Task: inverse folding
C-alpha cells in the first residue's frame, strides 16, 4: 500500500493520516499496522506525566528542541484529558505544530480517542507503532497522570518522567507507592517558585525508603522549563536511565510487558468482535438487554450465557 | 451468603467490604453481584462531572445534605483521578465520611481501581449495583471529567450535571459538542467570582444552537456551593430532568444503554479469562511474546492466531 511506503519514509502527512485512521477505528488499520510492525522496535519511548499545571507541555517542547540539536528525530503524542471540556489541546497542538513546522524531524500529535471499540491505550500503542515504523528515534508520550488508561500508557514507556512543582501544594506525604514504581526520573519543574528545597528533601526521603524491584534509584532534577534551566541535566538523567535498562538487560523485559498489555487489549476487542458477528445478533442482544432491564437476568449471567452460546456455535 | 443479606439491609460495613472485593477483583464478586442484581433498578443515578477545581466535592456534599432533608438515602461514589499522585481523595474521603458519619442514610466511597482485569468503568458499575441493591434512593457518581473512562461512566447516569466556573477561563467557545450531549444540567459554580454573565450568555447561545437527540434543553443554574447558594434550584432542575425522562419514557432506554455497556465490558473480560484458562497457557503466551518482541510476529496477527486456536480448542 502506498500509505505504508510513505509512513516508512517518514512522510508527515501519511503518518498523520494513519493515526487518524487509528483514532476513527477504521477497518483498514489492522492490515496497515501488521505491515508496519516489523519495522518497529528501534524507537526509545519516553513517558512524561504529572498533575495538571506542572508545565509538562513546555517541558516536552524544550526537551524536544534539545534532542533535535543532537540530530535525533522525535515523535510526540500528547494525550489530551480535558478534551470533552475544551478544544484547548487541539488548539495548543496547532500552536505547537507551527513552532516546529519547519522541522521535518519532529512530529506532534494530540490524541483524544473515545468510544468503546478500541480505547485510548490501544490507540496510543498503535500510534507508537506508526511513529516507530516511521523511524523516529525518540517517541514522547505526554499525559496528565489522571485516569487509569493514562497511567497505564506511561507505564509502558522505556523511561518515565514524573513532573511535580513546588507551588502546587503537592504534599509529598500523600504521593503513593504507585508513582514510585512509575517514576524513573523525578522533575521538579518551576523550581524557582515555592518551597523547592522542602519538596526535594521530602522526595529524597521517599526515594530512599522505597526500594524498587528493578534496583533503580530515581534521580531528582530541578528545572524551569520556560527559562531553559535544567533541561540538559534532565536529558542526561534520561539517558542514564536508558543506559541502566540496557545494561541490566531490561529493554527486552519492558518490550515484553508492553507487548503483553497490547496483546491482551487486542484479544479482548477481537473476541468481542467475533462474538458479535458470529453468535450475538442484534436481536439476541436485545433479548438479553430486555431481560436484564426487567431484572429477569443480570449482566453477569448474561455475559456467561453469551460466551457459552458462542462456544457452541463456533 | 451473610454479606448479601447485610448489603440488602444497607449495612454500611458490608457495603464497604463488597466494594473492596470489587476493587480487588476478588473471585467472590461475580456470585455476590449476581445475587444482588435482582434487587437493583430502583436508584436514581446522578452523574456529576467538570474540570478540576470546579468545586464538585463541595457541591456534591451540599446537594447530599439537601437530599437527606427530603428523607432520601444517598450513596456517593467519588472517582479519584489524582490517586496515583496523591492520597488526597482518600484523605478527603475520610473527612467527608466523618462529616456524615452520624447519618446512616449516606454512604460515601472513593474508587481508584487500577489494573487490567476489570477497569474503572466495570468497577464503578459494580459499585452502583451494590449501592442500588442496598436500597439507596439516589446514587451520585462524582468524577473529574478527564480520561475516557470517567466520561463514559458519567454518560451512563440518569441525569448528568456538568459543573463549570466563571474563574477558570473555561472559554465556552472551546467546549465541544460531546459535552452538550452529556450535560443535562449545567452548573456555574463559584458564580460570585469572575465574569458569570459572560459564561452564562455564551453557554445559553451554545445550548440554543445545539439540538439534542432527546429533545431536552439543558438549564443553567448558578451556585455558590460553599455558601449554600443555588442548591435548591439545582435540585429542582435535576428533578425536572428526571420527570422529563420519565415522561418521555427514556428511563428504560437509558437503563438499556447502561446495561449494554456493562455487558460488553463483562463479555470482553470473561472471554479473555476463558481464552487464558483454556488455550492460552503461560508457555504459549510467552512464545507469542518472544516472537512479537523479535518482530517475527506482531500483536495484531498474534491476537488473531490466539482466538483461532481458542475456537479450535473449545
Result:
Amino acid at each position: 500500500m502506498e500509505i505504508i511506503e510513505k509512513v516508512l519514509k517518514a512522510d508527515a502527512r501519511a503518518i498523520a493520516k494513519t493515526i487518524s485512521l487509528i483514532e476513527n477505528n477504521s477497518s483498514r488499520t489492522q492490515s496497515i499496522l501488521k505491515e508496519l510492525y516489523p519495522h518497529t522496535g528501534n524507537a526509545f519511548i519516553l513517558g512524561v506525566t504529572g498533575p495538571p499545571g506542572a508545565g509538562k507541555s513546555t517541558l516536552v517542547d524544550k526537551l524536544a528542541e534539545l534532542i533535535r540539536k543532537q540530530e535525533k528525530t522525535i515523535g510526540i503524542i500528547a494525550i489530551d484529558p480535558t478534551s470533552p471540556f475544551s478544544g484547548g489541546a487541539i488548539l495548543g497542538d496547532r500552536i505547537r505544530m507551527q513552532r516546529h513546522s519547519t522541522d521535518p524531524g519532529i512530529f506532534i500529535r494530540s490524541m483524544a480517542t473515545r468510544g468503546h471499540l478500541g480505547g485510548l491505550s490501544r490507540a496510543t500503542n498503535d500510534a507508537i507503532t506508526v511513529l516507530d515504523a516511521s523511524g523516529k528515534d525518540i517517541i514522547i508520550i505526554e499525559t496528565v497522570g489522571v485516569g487509569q488508561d493514562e497511567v497505564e500508557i506511561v507505564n509502558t514507556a522505556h523511561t518515565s518522567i514524573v513532573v511535580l512543582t513546588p507551588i502546587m501544594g503537592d504534599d509529598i506525604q500523600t504521593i503513593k507507592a504507585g508513582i514510585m514504581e512509575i517514576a524513573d526520573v523525578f522533575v521538579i519543574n518551576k523550581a524557582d517558585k515555592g518551597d523547592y528545597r522542602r519538596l526535594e528533601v521530602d522526595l529524597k526521603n521517599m526515594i530512599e525508603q522505597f526500594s524498587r524491584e528493578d534496583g533503580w534509584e530515581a534521580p531528582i532534577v530541578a528545572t524551569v522549563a520556560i527559562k531553559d534551566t535544567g533541561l540538559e541535566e534532565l536529558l542526561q538523567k534520561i539517558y542514564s536511565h536508558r543506559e541502566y535498562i540496557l545494561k541490566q538487560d531490561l529493554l527486552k523485559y519492558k518490550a515484553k510487558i508492553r507487548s503483553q498489555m497490547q496483546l491482551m487489549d487486542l484479544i479482548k476487542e477481537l473476541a468481542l468482535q467475533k462474538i458479535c458477528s458470529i453468535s450475538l445478533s442484534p436481536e439476541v442482544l436485545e433479548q438479553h438487554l430486555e431481560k436484564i432491564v426487567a431484572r429477569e437476568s443480570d449482566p453477569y449471567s448474561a455475559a456467561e450465557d453469551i460466551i457459552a452460546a458462542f462456544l457452541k456455535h463456533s
